[in-house]
């Protein structure tokens, strides 16, 4: 069970003088929302608030007035809080004063008050609260800012679009008072491009750097242009490309194989390089090559081959002699075998046929056969023996 206590304003009765009449316009007693009206007898004047109310905070929004014999001539002096500025210190009847704050602070309350004929102000003086940020910066065309931060102590930097020029400071800070320590700069349009930086051996057609200027480039004789031959100064104040360079063409550095020597390491255009081999080696390729104007060599470098060794030649000669000797001996042996075989056959046939009475034995070589004849008269037509000759038989004169 929770109990909530009603909010009450302080009692006002002790502050009411005898000649002040009090009328309750709304509510009762000192409860929140109660409104009281005060008045004085006809012969006197009220000095103070004619009407007050009990606020939700438990305080009256004014004080109990008093009745005086003479009409009031002024209001009480205003009590102002820190950082509140007022246009006038005048407190006379019908005076109107205005309020403002120190730079960066925010006004909370009425901007103006009037001193009424009853000798009271028609409201309470306002207050001013400390800032938490600076106002958003208003930037002109072509101005770029590093950050949109507007909090206290924030620092922002300014830049221009390419080619434009910043005409004031490059940075601003948001002060603790909620104001920037200056105004944002502006950027002015370019009237020309920066002066071109040209390297050695580059020739340029003009030194003009104004907007829309077009310049062309070339090289000293014998040099090659690397880059654009023509560039233009754009409306943004920048060149559309950087200036080219000029280089003297060269051929690639030569890579030589083993045992090759060159007359020079020069690889410039028209250079002639000659080659030779170490003692005992043979050059395979061109004896000299030239670096052409397009940066290429007229041919590849040659190579050097080694001569056959003495032992290799000796082995080859010995192998050839052995082959010849072996062939001759083999041929002689084959011929001897054929002769012996033929003699044996002839001897056997002669012995055989001598026993049969044949006294005349002869051998004849036909086109494709070897034939043996035996008869008494030497005129036999049919051979007693016939055989096909071998290649070696063909060499025999039978």
Describe this structure in words.
The termini are far apart. The strands form 11 sheets. Strands 1-2-4 form a 3-stranded antiparallel sheet, with no helix packed on it. It has 398 residues and is of the alpha+beta class. The protein has 5 domains: 13-124, Complement Module, domain 1 (Ribbon); 131-189, Complement Module, domain 1, CATH 2.10.70; 202-247, Complement Module, domain 1; 260-305, Ribbon (Complement Module, domain 1), CATH 2.10.70; 331-394, no CATH class. The protein is 12% helix and 26% strand. Strand 1 and strand 2 (35-39) form a beta hairpin. Residues 294-315, 376-398 are annotated as: Disordered.
What is the secondary structure topology, with strand pairs?
Layout: E1 21-26, E2 35-39, E3 45-47, E4 51-53, E5 66-68, E6 84-86, E7 96-101, E8 106-108, E9 112-114, E10 127-129, E11 143-145, E12 155-160, E13 165-166, E14 171-173, E15 187-188, E16 202-204, E17 214-219, E18 224-226, E19 230-232, E20 245-247, E21 260-262, E22 272-277, E23 282-284, E24 288-290, E25 303-305, H1 310-354, E26 360-365, E27 370-375, E28 385-387, H2 391-394
Antiparallel strand pairs: 1-2, 2-4, 3-5, 6-7, 7-9, 8-10, 11-12, 12-14, 13-15, 16-17, 17-19, 18-20, 21-22, 22-24, 23-25, 26-27, 27-28
Pfam families: Sushi
Protein name: Sushi, von Willebrand factor type A, EGF and pentraxin domain-containing protein 1
InterPro entries: Sushi/SCR/CCP_sf (IPR035976), Sushi_SCR_CCP_dom (IPR000436)
């Amino acid at each position: 069970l929770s109990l909530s206590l009603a909010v009450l304003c302080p009692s006002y009765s002790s502050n009411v003088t005898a000649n002040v009449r009090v009328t309750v316009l709304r509510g009762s007693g000192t409860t929140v929302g109660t409104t009281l009206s005060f008045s004085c007898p006809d012969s006197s004047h009220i000095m103070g608030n004619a009407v007050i109310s009990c606020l939700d905070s438990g305080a009256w929004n004014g004080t109990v007035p008093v009745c005086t014999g003479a009409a009031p001539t002024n209001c009480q002096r205003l009590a102002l809080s820190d950082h509140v500025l007022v246009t006038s210190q005048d407190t006379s009847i019908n005076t109107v004063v205005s309020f403002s704050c120190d730079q960066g602070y925010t006004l909370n309350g009425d901007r103006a008050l009037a001193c009424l004929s009853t000798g009271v102000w028609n409201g309470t003086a306002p207050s001013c609260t400390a800032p938490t940020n600076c106002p958003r910066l208003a930037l002109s065309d072509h101005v770029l800012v590093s950050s949109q931060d507007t909090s206290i102590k924030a620092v922002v930097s300014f830049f221009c679009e390419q080619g434009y020029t910043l005409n004031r400071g490059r940075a601003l800070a948001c002060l603790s008072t909620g104001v920037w320590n200056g105004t944002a700069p502006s950027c002015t349009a370019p009237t020309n491009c920066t002066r071109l930086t040209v390297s050695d051996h580059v020739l340029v057609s003009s030194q003009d750097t104004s907007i829309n200027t077009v310049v062309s480039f070339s090289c000293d004789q014998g040099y090659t242009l690397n880059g654009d031959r023509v560039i233009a100064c754009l409306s943004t104040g920048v060149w559309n490309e950087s200036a080219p360079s000029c280089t003297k063409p060269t051929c690639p550095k030569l890579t030589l194989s083993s045992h090759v020597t060159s007359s020079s390491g020069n690889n410039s255009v028209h250079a002639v390089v000659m080659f030779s081999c170490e003692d005992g080696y043979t050059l395979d390729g061109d004896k000299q090559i030239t670096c052409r104007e397009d940066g290429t060599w007229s041919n590849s470098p040659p190579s050097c081959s080694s001569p056959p060794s003495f032992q290799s030649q000796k082995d080859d000669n010995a192998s050839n002699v052995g082959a010849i000797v072996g062939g001759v001996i083999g041929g002689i042996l084959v011929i001897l075998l054929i002769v012996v075989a033929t003699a044996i056959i002839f001897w056997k046939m002669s012995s055989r046929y001598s026993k049969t009475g044949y006294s005349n034995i002869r051998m004849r070589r036909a086109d494709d056969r070897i034939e043996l004849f035996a008869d008494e008269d030497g005129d036999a037509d049919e051979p007693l023996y016939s055989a096909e000759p071998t290649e070696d038989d063909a060499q025999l004169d039978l």
